[in-house]
TrEMBL record:
This enzyme's EC code(s): 1.-.-.-
Keywords: Flavoprotein, FMN, Monooxygenase, Oxidoreductase
Entry keyword annotation includes Electron transport: no
CDD domains tied to this protein: Alkanesulfonate_monoxygenase (cd01094)
Name assigned to this protein: LLM class flavin-dependent oxidoreductase
Organism expressing this protein natively: Rhizobium lemnae
Pfam families per record: Bac_luciferase
Length: 389
């Protein structure tokens, strides 16, 4: 399979990080990047009341606030689930919704999750849609590349789940073709070997502003890490130890080193992000009481809400969650849990940075209220601690 894409100049296809003035390069200059997880999905994992809503308007207000606060990244996920959903049913598509947010934000990167094998979407569709969003967002938009880990999602699209590692090989072939189409100075033809599509004299212009859109991968498996090392600017790492901050801090340094070493072996550099929930109040006792109240409202075994979480998945990344050797968290949401007073939260963020984390993708139990608390009480302390410029 041909790997190296060329631009009109004949040079290798550049990544956004090759341009000093790209939004990605600007974001990466922060000591600890800040991302906001946008929940375009009806998540009701605890009955403790919140202001949350999956609607575009609620999330548009959040993304505007995050942009004003100087957050570097907004991200949302996509899931394809039958009636019954995940926790709740309603969900907006993050490809379209974050694309629309380009028009109401100024600096923040907008990362949409796309299941790149479903459909399958033809490479020409992807390359043109992505170049269009790249221009609308002036280089701020990007893809969180996922290949689909739940059997039920593949079945919804009309086939049996594709083998785990083969999915990454298929995605690699797809991205090599996308790179050609984003970079080539001439029409490009390719006959898919692992994928059921071909391209005959494919061409798009304008090209993306900074080589290609920003690319993100969320993975923990060897095949996924190998893919991420070759095809991503940012990698969502997942704590091999589970959600408790102590086990995350214990297991992350070695894991992050392996991810970065893998990228270096391909001559690439990746930044790491971790999806974290912050549960904070002015004092430690208040923060713990808040976490207790969230936990008390979680669905109990035997209820419908509890049962819908158990779709068959072949993912590797979250297996630390079931590992009894590690301290497990309270299952409050997010990949890891940061609980405490503002000072304690900042201490944990400093420790994550020392563990090799380049940015945190923040989730809150109550997005609007807790983002306010974060802005007023935690962000100033992060600046004092040198985590933010
Ligand atoms: C922050 C974050 C967001 C994710 N969003 C999605 C998503 O929207 N849709 C999806 O199918 N997988 C998503 N994933 C990926 C899966 O949860 C899982 O980690 C991945 O399929 C595992 O790949 P692996 O087997 O290579 O480790 C996300 C993972 C993380 C850490």
């Amino acid at each position: 399979m041909a790997v190296t894409a060329t631009q009109a100049t004949g040079a290798e296809l550049k990544a956004p990080s090759d341009f000093d003035e790209s939004p990605l390069s600007r974001a990466a200059r922060q000591p600890l990047m800040l991302g906001l997880f946008l929940n375009l999905q009806d998540i009701n994992f605890s009955s403790l009341p919140t202001s949350n809503s999956w609607t575009f308007d609620y999330n548009a207000e959040l993304v505007k606030r995050a942009d004003e606060l100087g957050f570097e990244i907004a991200f949302s996920r996509t899931q394809w689930l039958p009636k019954g959903g995940y926790d709740g049913e309603a969900s907006l598509d993050s490809f379209i919704a974050l694309g629309a947010m380009a028009a109401i934000t100024r600096n923040i990167l907008l990362i949409s999750t796309i299941h790149v094998l479903y459909g399958p979407l033809h490479p020409l569709h992807l390359v043109k849609y992505c170049a269009t969003l790249d221009h609308i967002a002036k280089g701020r938009w990007g893809i969180n590349i996922v290949t689909g880990h739940r059997a039920i999602e593949h079945e919804m699209f009309g086939w049996q789940r594709i083998d785990h590692d083969k999915r990454y090989e298929m995605a690699s072939e797809l991205f090599e073709v996308l790179h050609h189409l984003w970079g080539e100075g001439e029409n490009f033809s390719y006959q898919g070997k692992l994928n059921p599509w071909s391209v005959n004299n494919g061409w798009i212009t304008p090209k993306p502003l900074f080589g290609r859109p920003n690319l993100v991968t969320a993975t923990g498996s060897p095949a996924g890490i190998d893919f991420a090392a070759r095809h991503s600017d940012l990698v969502f790492v997942i704590s091999p130890g589970g959600a408790h901050i102590d086990s995350a801090l214990e297991t992350l340094p070695q894991h992050i080193k392996a991810v970065k070493d893998r990228a270096r072996a391909y001559g690439c550099a990746v930044k790491t992000l971790i999806n974290s929930i912050i549960v904070s109040r002015d004092t430690e006792a208040q923060a713990i009481a808040y976490a207790d109240a969230i936990e008390a409202g979680k669905p109990q075994p035997g209820t419908r809400a509890f049962a819908t979480n158990n779709y068959d998945s072949d993912e590797h990344a979250w297996r630390g969650r079931g590992d009894a050797r590690h301290k497990q968290g309270r299952n409050l949401g997010g990949n890891i849990e940061i609980i405490g007073s503002p000072e304690q939260v900042v201490e944990q963020l400093i420790a994550l940075k020392r563990a090799g984390i380049d940015g945190v993708q923040l989730t809150f139990y109550d997005f609007r209220e807790d983002l306010d608390h974060f802005a007023e009480r935690i962000l100033p302390l992060m600046k004092e601690a040198g985590l933010r410029l």
